[in-house]
Amino acid sequence: MKNIKITALTLFVFGLMIQTSYAQNRQRLTPEERSERETSQIFASITTLSEEQKDQVKEISLKYSKSMSETMQNNRGDREAMRSAMQSLRSEKDKELKEVFTEEQFAQYEKLRKEAGDRRRGRRNG
Length: 126
Fold this sequence. Notes:
Helices cover about 85% and strands about 0% of the residues. The chain has one domain (about 30-125). It has helices at about 1-25, 30-45, 50-75, 80-100, 105-125.
């Protein structure tokens, strides 16, 4: 019985270590990698973008990925300040993207963002 408890505890601790390691590695994307991942998702969802629009979206995405990365570094201890700054950056980014996209494309972009937010909330709650 004692061996079963020790084995179960060992497996639990090992699983917790793997989960923590995965979460840390996942968050270590560079701004360029985050931007590339985001633009790939946008381009896959909004197939009507012209090459000029794609270039503009890449530029905007990279600009804000770098700004968000700096914001995270500068506000590590102050969660509320970081949240506020990130909301402001997302709002500015959306305004710039709205100028690049048509109304229909921007609606698709907003739908994509909402779905991504729902997935994130699901992971946190699940």
